């Protein structure tokens, strides 16, 4: 087995495990010493692998966040309902953005993860002289929403549609807003 094959094998072991794997366990599986595994792990990390060291062994840091962009439209009075709908179904509202015909894409980070975050956001908006970003494009705007599964994003999409908040894409807009992690480029 070559060094590259061994490192690939280590990654496969870690990716297929839901629990930490000890250096001794990995060493036995790869038929090398624990010290070789320690060195391999260090090199894998140096190359960008998200390997965590715990008291029980090594673990791959798996990202469980999947995202989808939703085009929505609603009144100012419906903002609380829209955001609460997303949060209550397990979504996290990462941002809000618009595609302005003159200024292009204008984006604001939101990072709303709980109802408390939504309440604080709405309170801050009500204090200021600023308007909601959606108002520069007649109410049309987009949210990048993260969730732990495609199923949760499907539920959020269905609920936004049921409430009448989903907006129809125009012919000039990107077609695929559902690619995980992909933000549309205008």
From TrEMBL:
Name the lineage: Bacteria, Bacillati, Bacillota, Clostridia, Eubacteriales
Recorded hits in InterPro entries, A to Z, give: 3H_dom_sf (IPR035922), 3H_domain (IPR004173), HTH_11 (IPR013196), NadR (IPR026043), WH-like_DNA-bd_sf (IPR036388), WH_DNA-bd_sf (IPR036390)
Does the keyword section mention Metal-binding? yes
- A Gene Ontology molecular-function term? metal ion binding
Q: Which residues form the Helix-turn-helix type domain?
A: 10-58
The record ties this protein, via Gene3D superfamilies, to:
3H domain, Winged helix-like DNA-binding domain superfamily/Winged helix DNA-binding domain
Family annotation (PANTHER family): TRANSCRIPTION REPRESSOR NIAR-RELATED (PTHR40068:SF1)
Q: Which residues form the 3H domain?
A: 71-166
Sorted UniProt keywords: Metal-binding, Nickel
Protein name (Swiss-Prot/TrEMBL)? Transcription repressor NadR
Quote the record's binding site residues for Ni(2+).
Answer: 74, 82, 141, 143
């Amino acid at each position: 087995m070559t060094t590259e094959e061994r490192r690939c094998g280590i990654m496969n072991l870690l990716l297929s495990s839901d629990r930490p794997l000890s250096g001794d366990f990995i060493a036995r599986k790869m038929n090398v010493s624990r010290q070789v595994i320690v060195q391999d792990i260090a090199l894998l990390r140096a190359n960008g692998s998200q390997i965590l060291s715990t008291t029980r062994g090594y673990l791959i840091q798996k990202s469980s966040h999947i995202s989808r962009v939703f085009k929505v439209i609603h009144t100012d009075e419906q903002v609380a309902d829209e955001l609460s709908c997303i949060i209550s179904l397990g979504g996290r509202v990462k941002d809000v953005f618009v595609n302005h015909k003159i200024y292009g894409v204008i984006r604001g980070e939101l990072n709303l993860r709980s109802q408390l975050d939504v309440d604080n956001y709405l309170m801050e908006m009500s204090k200021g002289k600023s308007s909601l970003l959606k108002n520069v494009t007649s109410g049309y705007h987009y949210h990048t929403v993260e969730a732990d599964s495609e199923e949760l994003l499907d539920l959020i999409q269905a609920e936004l549609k049921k409430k009448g908040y989903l907006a129809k894409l125009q012919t000039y807009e990107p077609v695929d807003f559902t690619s995980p992690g992909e933000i549309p480029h205008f």
